[in-house]
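[step 3/7] fold_predict: job queued, chain A
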Amino acid sequence: MTLGTLRWELAGPPTFERQPRTVDGPGTSVNDRGVDEVPG
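[step 4/7] structure written:
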């Protein structure tokens, strides 16, 4: 859960937590949030 903690600090709200981990692969999450984080 290391990535989750980092995202919380970058994104802020636990919105990424509601989304499935599958979408967090290709980097769709980064584009959706517009956060410059490393897709894991």
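[step 5/7] annotate
Residues 2-11 form the longest helix (10 residues).
Residues 2-32 form one domain.
exit 0
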